[in-house]
Design a protein that fits this description.
The protein is an all-alpha fold. It contains 16 helices and two strands. A hairpin with a 6-residue loop joins strand 1 and strand 2.
Length: about 350
């Protein structure tokens, strides 16, 4: 998607996939890079069990494995693993930073009673990994670890960077809330079983502005194709974490003493930021989440202020584009989604999921 809408194609692109490949990175080396970020902040390095037992790439022995990236706590205070079929590219490098955030959280609260070995709330656990990825994705950090040859420092490159960030953070908000809305309407039996697929796509039409790519019927049970639906993971955690991660990010940048634009902050090597983060993580679930929030961000509330501050330059750029191109009448979408991409050529439904079940 980013390649289709990049604001300034001739400006710097901070996707470092080519550099990773040229420098001979492997999934394990990308994981080492993520672990090094936490160590640089004075936090706990991944134990030997992590390196011995984690599955960082698809096995080549013919085993069928679940590849969805997840982190695991085996509750013995030493065995923490990532399961992921990584390939060498920037997206997977950032995912490894995210999953290593879960590992660091596990390490910080491992000595608490088992009942308290969890995040302060669901969003906290997800926010920690995203927090580190925010810093690790900055051009400054990529330059410092040798993945960018030159440090871009111009307005056009900044807008490219912010739009790339927005596509993975802002654009996912309606997806998360729409999916969670469907889940809870199903749980409350507000959506009849015979309308699960129909209502799923109605919500996606209204909230996301997308349309099904092919004809769907109730024989096509689309929602459980998503890992988190099939495995009963709340998607509200991904919605709330988006705001929490920016509160954490702003707090760690303040601890580092950062005074520039928020989106340029990198707290790699800041033990001051590490102390603030580690103190909060070590609480686990032993305190109510508002107290954990106060410990790191100085407030007891989830807020959008830091999120809006981070993307403020991009928001101004987008509004200028709308005004300059007279696009006010083009915003939004048809809530009825009358247009269908398959109207002229209707592909057959390949699998009848209900008959298989």
């Amino acid at each position: 998607m980013y390649s289709l809408v990049v604001p300034y194609p001739d400006a710097a692109n901070v996707d470092v996939t080519d550099a990773l490949l040229a420098q001979g990175y492997t999934p394990e080396r990308m994981s080492e890079l993520a672990d090094d970020f936490f160590v640089s902040m004075g936090l706990i390095p991944a134990p030997q069990e992590y390196w011995d037992e984690s599955m960082l790439e698809r096995p080549d022995d013919g085993r069928q494995v679940e590849c969805h990236a997840t982190a695991w706590d085996f509750y013995n205070q030493k065995d923490f693993r990532i399961r992921m079929c990584s390939t060498v590219n920037m997206d997977d490098m950032m995912t490894l930073h995210h999953e290593m955030g879960h590992i660091q959280y596990y390490l910080q609260y491992k000595d608490l009673p088992v009942a308290f070995r969890d995040g302060a709330n669901e969003g906290f656990h997800e926010a920690v990994g995203e927090l580190i990825a925010l810093s690790a994705a900055t051009p400054q950090h990529l330059y410092d670890v040798g993945l960018l040859e030159e440090l871009p420092d111009d307005y056009e490159s900044d807008m490219n960077f912010l739009l790339k960030q927005a596509l993975t953070m802002v654009a996912t908000l309606p997806f998360s809330i729409g999916l969670e809305k469907w889940r809870w309407e199903v749980f409350r039996e507000e959506i009849p079983y015979e309308q699960w697929t129909e209502k799923f796509w109605e919500l996606k039409h209204n909230i996301l502005g997308v349309v099904e790519p092919a004809p769907r019927t109730e024989k096509d049970l689309d929602p459980p194709a998503l890992y988190h639906v099939a495995n009963d993971f709340s998607f509200l955690r991904y919605y709330t974490r988006t705001f929490i991660q920016f509160q954490f990010y702003e707090a760690l940048c303040a601890a580092k003493g950062w005074e520039g634009e928020l989106y340029k902050c990198d707290f790699y090597n800041s033990t001051e930021a590490g102390k603030v983060l580690g103190d909060m993580l070590s609480l686990g679930k032993s305190k109510p989440w508002p107290e954990a929030m106060m410990a790191i961000a100085g407030t007891t509330k989830m807020e959008s202020r830091a999120f809006l501050k981070y993307f403020e330059p991009l928001d101004k750029w987008l509004n200028n584009q709308i005004a300059e191109n007279d696009l006010f009448g083009e915003l939004g979408w048809d809530r009825e989604c009358a247009w269908k991409p398959y109207e002229e050529a209707v592909p057959p439904t390949v699998i009848d999921i209900q008959s298989i079940l």
